[in-house]
Structure formats: structure tokens, C-alpha cells
Amino acid sequence: MSHNTFGHLFRVTTFGESHGVAIGCVVDGCPPRIPLTVADIQRELDRRRPGQSKFVTQRREPDEVKIVSGVFTDPQGGEQVTTGTPIGLLIENVDARSKDYDAISELYRPGHADFTYDIKYGIRDPRGSGRASARETAMRVAAGAIARKVVPGMTVRGALVQMGEIDIDRSRWDWDEVARNPFFCPDAEAAKKMENYLDGIRKSGSSVGAVIEVVAENVPPGLGAPIYAKLDADIAAALMSINAVKGVEIGTGFASARLSGEANADEMRPGNAGRPEFTSNNAGGILGGISTGAPVVARFAVKPTSSILTPRQSINRQGAPAEVSTKGRHDPCVGIRAVPVGEAMLACVIADHFLRHRGQVGETANWPFPPQKK
User: Fold this and answer.
1) DSSP for 300-318?
2) Scanning 74, 115, 193, 354, which has its CA 20 to 30 A from the CA of 179?
3) What is the tens place of the pLDDT at every residue in 73-124?
């Protein structure tokens, strides 16, 4: 199985399975002398960690990360910094219950990767789905914690903006509220509705999907390149690579199809130091595949978890008809814990493009604009 690496200069390779001994990753291409401690990474992992509420899988994994390479204590400042060599990260699996999957070891769950993995490789790991499990995304979050440090001043935040039939009211958007409820929801009133809604779904043994919005601010202008290295194209690919994601949009996205040219255009005004200001951000901070300096905004849709108690019709590995009902510990809405994963993937893509831009054209964009010839 190849294709476990993403990125060009900031490269991330993940390894390990859901019920294996451990999961891990190697981050290659991180610049040297960036302060980095376990606490920097653990802080992000704790936001994704399972078992934190009744609304996520009850698998009890502490997700304690170890940095096994790529850092050194700076003899001058005394702090631990990156060395510029590959950074190895490892998390041990301590609460796998493989017996939960004995009953479906020869069955294909509808809507799951069971069938496609088997048809491609001729073998699959039914214990938590192996590499097809969202367990792998813990290492993306770990890598994203490093990526956040690569781009000076950049902040990346995410929020759940829709769960099933419940949408947030954007007029009540509060970033501080995201940390106050178990759904990463920026609307306190919508979060209360989600609690009753998801509790019913959870108790029935079913699942529901969600939409997550991720926003990167203080992104330097000029990142990305035409034609086949567009920043938005790489963001879309990165977000689509997350388990259960079935749709991605940048900025206004699909809603822009309903707008007129006048409504969709992000008008520009003179700003400070010759930099323009945009009166709107329908483009999501990217034009022509290149960052504008406005916030980079993306949304992605996560389908309902495929492992549900409700019996569904399928086939077994021999092709005979079968009925599938999945027991065990599963997220009734996998979109909840996808929020920090989406943040991490956005951070990794922007860090990669930041290093690629710096390598090709230098540290900064062309500010102020070159003077026009008379």
C-alpha cells in the first residue's frame, strides 16, 4: 500500500493501524530552530482525543505523543527546537478491542471501505478497519501542530457549522463558544439543539453527518501557483483525504452559483502600506489558485458513520447476501472530531506552500506594488 505521504517540501508520512501496536508519522522538511515540545503537539491531540463525551466513540485512548527524532535542546537558548531533520512522532494504542469486530470479519459494511480495500488488495484488516480507520487522523493532527509553527503569525481555527438537519445561525458566531461545547460549534443555541438531536441518534444506534468550516488567518499573499499547484486545489485534496469526507468548497463555494457577478466580486479598496483591503471574501482568500492575504476559508462535508447498529443489507466475502449490524464503539457523528483534523490539514497545506513560495520567489510578496511606468 503506497500513497501514505502528502506535501512537497513540508512532507508528512503516516503509518500504523487502528488496532496495531502504535500509530505514528514522520514530518520531513520542517525548517530548523523552530521551538517545539511535546506540549505543543499534545494540546492539539487532546482536542481530537476519543472518549471525551457521550457524543463520540468511547474508546479510551490517551493519545500521548512521543517525539522520537528531529529535535534538540538549543545550547544557547536552552529550549527544545527542531533540527531540520525528519521529526518522528509516535502514539501507542492502548485500548483496542478487536473482538468487537469478529462478527463482521467476513462481511462488508454498506457505505464503508471494507469492500474496496478487499477488492484492491485481496486482504483487509477488519479490526477497526486498519488504515481505513479515523484513528490514523491523530497523526495528521500531530503534524498539523508542527505546521502551525512554520508560517509566522498564522492562526488556524475550525468549527462545526451543520449537524444533520441543524444549521448554525451565523449572526451568533462566537469563536470562544467552540471550546465550550462538545461539538466545536460556534453557536451556543445550535449546540443545545445538537445535544438533544444527537443523543436521540446515538441511543437509536444510528449516525449523522456534518459540515465543518476551517479558517486560516494571517496567511501571506502569494502562496500557491498556477496551473497545477493551486493553493485551493491542494486544500481540496487534503480535506477530501480525511475519512468520510464527501465534499469540499472554498469560500462561498457552491452557493456562488446563485450569485450575480456584482454580488460575487470581492471589491478592493486601498489599505495600509499599499496593501488592498477586500470588502467581502467570497473567494475564500484565494484567486487564481494564489492566496490574496484575506482569510483562507474552506468547508467540508462528512458523511454519517458507516458502522451502525441498524441492520443493513450487504454481502459477505464469498458474495452471498448478508445482513450487517455493527456493534462496538463508534462515533454517532464522526464530523465532531473531524474539526481539529480539518484544521491540521489546512495548516499542513499552507505550511507546504509557504516553504515552496519562499524557495521560488523569496520571503515576502511584492509589497508595495511595483510602480507603474508612465
Assistant:
1) EEEPPPS--SS-EEEEBTT
2) 354
3) 998 889 999 999 999 999 998 876 667 677 778 889 888 888 999 999 998 8
Strands 210-217 and 296-302: antiparallel
In 3-state terms, what secondary structure has residue 365?
Answer: coil
Instruction: Judge contact between 248 and 300, C-beta under 8 A.
Output: yes
pLDDT single digits (tens) 311-369: 899 999 999 999 988 776 678 899 999 999 999 999 999 999 999 999 998 876 666 56
pLDDT classification of 374: cutoffs 50, 70, 90: very low
Q: Contact, 157 vs 175, CB < 8 A? A: yes
Q: Collapsing DSSP states into helix, strand and coil, what is residue 297?
A: strand
Strands of 296-302's sheet in order across: 166-167, 155-163, 210-217, 296-302, 245-250
User: CA separation (Å) from 50 to 88, 157, 307?
Assistant: 22, 20, 16
pLDDT at 130: 72
User: Taking the complete model, does pTM exceed 0.90, yes or no?
Assistant: yes
Report d(CA 359, CA 313) in Å as an integer: 53
Q: Cα 174 vs. chain centroid, distance in angstroms?
A: 21
Q: Give the C-alpha separation, 164 to 154, whole Å.
A: 31
Rounded-to-integer distance, Cα 335 and Cα 217, Å? 22
Show the CA angle centred on residue 123, arms to residues 117 and 124, nearest 5°: 60
Rounded to whole angstroms, the Cα distance separating 267 from 279 reads 5
| Whole-number Å distance between alpha carbons of 110 and 117 | 13
Q: Which helix (H) or strand (E) holds 231?
A: helix 231-240
All 3 cell numbers of residue 310?
441498524
Rounded distance between C-alpha atoms, residue 217 and residue 139, angstroms: 23
- Amino acid identity of residue 152, one-letter, is P
